[in-house]
Write a structure and sequence with these properties.
Distance between the termini: 77 Å
Order of helices and strands: HHHHHHHHHHHHH
Number of helices: 13
Shape: elongated
Radius of gyration: 21 Å
Largest sheet: none
Strand content: under 5%
Number of strands: 0
Length: 238
Amino acid sequence: DPRRHDQVIRLSLATGDGAGAVQAAAEAEKQFPGVLEFSLYHALALGQTGKHDEAVKIFERILAEARNERLSLLDADFFFSYGVACEQAGHFEKATEQLKKSIAMDSRTAPRACNYLGYMWAERGENLPEAEKLIRGALEAEPDNGAYLDSLGWVLYQQGRYEEALTELLRAANLLAAEPDAIVLEHVGDAYEKLGKSSEAVLYWQKALHIDPENASLLAKLDAHASRVAKTPTKPGG
């Protein structure tokens, strides 16, 4: 019964068992080769386990087959997931293409695709005015979305608008206080550093490091700050 396979795969994906989802989806694909949903689950599971290039290949196969057999499968969710897989695999032009398709297809789900594309561009320092416009559009739909506010703060940061960036990043951190996000806290620290407030920067970097202790970027920033402090001459009487 394909429904049982469907239930197992969905449960594995929902609980973060990417390896289990990959195995279950691959088995279901073999047993029910005409059911493209199992191929889609397989691609999503591969992405969850970091095998993004393999995921992209499956998305490409689904796209080719669904155009002839299951056009309804190629909806905004499909192109969003395809775009995410492309971005994670480092195929940024293709990611842009798929995310734009998702945005154009469904206004209901457009905010997440707008935010994802805007943040991708912000991270890469590309198309920053357009990225800001996309993210602000996402925030019009969901004004209290902490992730979207972080994206806005980061695109402002990348444009050198550090005071504005800090305001939005602190709002994001406050909204996500129940489940702190290391990236958001690191961004706050980065903004403080640009404004010359090193003590505040270190405080937020340390908060982020507590959540993500293996983060090499955070460790490098804290080491660089400690090195600068060590080299600062001590004032007489200090």
